[in-house]
Amino acid sequence: MDFLTSPDFWFLTGTSLAKTLFLIFLVVLPMVSYTVYAERRVSALIQDRLGPNRTGFPLSLIPGVKNDWSPILGGLGQPVADAVKFLLKEDFVPAHVNKFYFWIAPALSMMPALVTLAAIPFGSTFLGVPMVVANINVGLLFMFAISSVSVYGIVIAGWSSNSKYPFLGGIRSSSQMISYELGMGLSAVPVLLIAGSTSLPQIVEFQIHNGWMLFPFTNPHFHFSQIVLWIPMCIAFVTFTISMFAETNRLPFDLPESETELVAGYHTEYSSMKFALFFLGEYTAMIAGSALIVVLFLGGYHFPGIPNGNGEGGFIPYPHFADGTFWHAVVNAVWGVINITVFFAKVAVLLFVFIWIRWTLPRFRFDQLMKLGWLYLFEIALVNIFLTAGILAFTH
Amino acid sequence: MATYVVPRPNLTWKEKMYLPAIVAGMMITIKHLKRMLMGQTKVVMQYPEEKWDSRMPEHYRGAPTLVTDDHGRERCVACQLCEFICPPRAITITPEEIPAESKFAKVEKRPKEFEIDMIRCIYCGLCEEVCPEQAIFLRKDYAITGTTRAEMKHDKAKLYELGGVMDGLVHKWNPKK
């Protein structure tokens, strides 16, 4: 209610809207389409193929110019062509499906992934506005709560399709969720213990001052005792990343889809834009997951030497201007943009790892995933919490 | 024969952890990616830009064509053997008599029309094999395309255009040979 009555109401509403539009339409959705492209291209390179290298810009031939294939730009138009193809294809709804849930499932798998992005601090500040859409103090819990909703999209899609392979996919998805969610939640707890907050911007702030969770030596005042805390952080990072692969239904845990066993899993009966929504949902969830890993373990938008959007904290030399002057604002805006770029560069690296792992490992068997989730990740994460707590109790 | 119990391998803790194996696998895939990026891996031919043409073997069986000899005479004498042997019946020949005033009047017969339906042709090469006059040859054209059925029917003019000139021993019209 404070928000509704505050004098900044219109300012806050306007900036939130601008940030949301910027994040979704200018960053995440283009990133999603180019992740799909990168997936195809990297998989091809890993398998000694070339991948899509034809559809370049400007998408069609200019008469008189032979520009249908360039080894460098070729293929970059593929996401646009894919989107047009998905929009123009027939949206076929089989007669035997449960129409209402069949229609609602793609949205249910896409929306949670987009909503979770709200809590991600994707930059420091830009023109004084903090680069996080919703600065809520339970950011991490919000992320976990919303991202686990996306499993409903898969389960409902599997059930409403009223056909056996989607159904098996849906069942697998639900049992997969209960086996990794515990491990995922628990492996994030050591980070919370160290940072002392569940607010994602505050976790990033903590890492700026004390070194990244995974790379404590990014701290300029790095002291050797931090190495002790680094060990549980590495364990937490590995368990969290493994759980994140399961959360986003990526290989080696793509059991709901398992295209070699279940045709296409939960989206077998879907076509056209509904299928594309599942696809977008999967990749948006990948981006949200990578962003969460970056925020929790890799220092968010921070990079050693680069100051934040207020010009504080860096040691790269740059011209300083007096506070309040025009050039001061410009320089800080540039730093703000660089911070956002750093953040998404880190996300892109993680996305590459996602793709890299997908084209390296075979799929886990169903019971192997359950065993991994219940017998290993859960226990390791639990022990890790006590380890971290013990270290903290001794060193502080 | 005595049975032999194969001992199960005892996994070390490192193997049980599975992570080193994952890292080893990832190193293999990244090596492939690196080799591709460095251009050290051979990839398939990029068809429309690179073609087989220069590497085509001499015996390649492409589209059947008609040839003229070095004196400009069409070698075909319209004996119709190829028409009769053609397994998918792609060839249709309409013979005619060579007029008396022609230089090649001694040959007597030539095709008035010679059509090969390239939709039917199976590139078997029997026509080339059966031809007593060495008039029909399978050349190296392999991309025979068209937008209509009529376009895919190669008539005499088209066949001679594809075939061109071929030197040979047969000079039937010349009484001295």
Description:
The complex is a heterodimer of chains A (396) and B (177). By secondary structure, chain A is mostly helical. Chain A contains twelve helices and two strands, in the order ααααββαααααααα. Chain A has one domain. Chain A has a two-stranded antiparallel ribbon. In chain A, a hairpin with a 2-residue loop joins strand 1 and strand 2. The longest helix of chain A has 38 residues. Chain A is globular. By secondary structure, chain B is α+β, with helices and mostly antiparallel strands. Chain B has a domain of 108 residues: 2-Layer Sandwich (Alpha-Beta Plaits), CATH 3.30.70.3270. The model of chain B has no long low-confidence stretch (mean pLDDT 85). At the A-B interface, helix 2 of A face helix 2 of B.
Task: Describe the structure concisely.
The complex is a heterodimer of chains A (396) and B (177). Chain A has 396 residues and is an all-alpha fold. Chain A has 12 helices and 2 strands, in the order H-H-H-H-E-E-H-H-H-H-H-H-H-H.
Overall structural domain count of chain A: 1
Q: Which blocks of ≥5 consecutive residues of chain A have pLDDT under 50?
A: none
Number of helices of chain A: 12
Protein structure class of chain A: mainly alpha
Q: Which structural category do the helix and sheet elements of chain B fall into?
A: alpha+beta
**Roughly how much helix do the residues of chain A carry, as a percent range?**
55-70%
Mean pLDDT of chain B: 85
Largest interface comes to: A-B, 14 and 18 residues
Radius of gyration of chain B: 30 Å
Silhouette of chain B: elongated
Describe the sheet with the most strands of chain B. Answer: 3 strands, antiparallel
Number of strands of chain A: 2
Largest sheet of chain A: 2 strands, antiparallel
- CATH fold-level label of the domain at 56-163 in chain B: Alpha-Beta Plaits
What's the helical proportion of residues of chain B? Answer: 10-25%
Strand order of the largest sheet of chain B: 2-3-5
Radius of gyration of chain A: 23 Å
Described by the principal axes of the CA atoms, the overall outline of chain A is globular
Give the overall average pLDDT of chain A.
82
